[in-house]
Amino acid sequence: LAVQSSNGSFSDEDRKQYTAEFGSLIKELDHVADTTNYNNIKLLDQTAIGAATQVSIQASDKANDLINIDLFNAKGLS
């Protein structure tokens, strides 16, 4: 959106619309970060970081075949 808005062929009104759309997308990302959880652990907001920094999921019948997912704070990404 930022690249499209800055190319010079859009009016000020068009840029206002891009800014509004960008704001809506940020709100949606924050909503996803607030509501995404696994096993009652919020995965994408900073509250999970204090409890654990990684979630491991067994990927097969072999005990050492794990998928490790790093937790991070997805709020405020832009």
Automatic annotation (TrEMBL):
Keywords: Cell projection, Cilium, Flagellum. SUPFAM superfamilies: Phase 1 flagellin. Residues 1-47 form the Flagellin N-terminal domain. InterPro entries: Flagellin_N. It comes from the Bacteria. GO terms for molecular function: structural molecule activity. This is Flagellin protein.
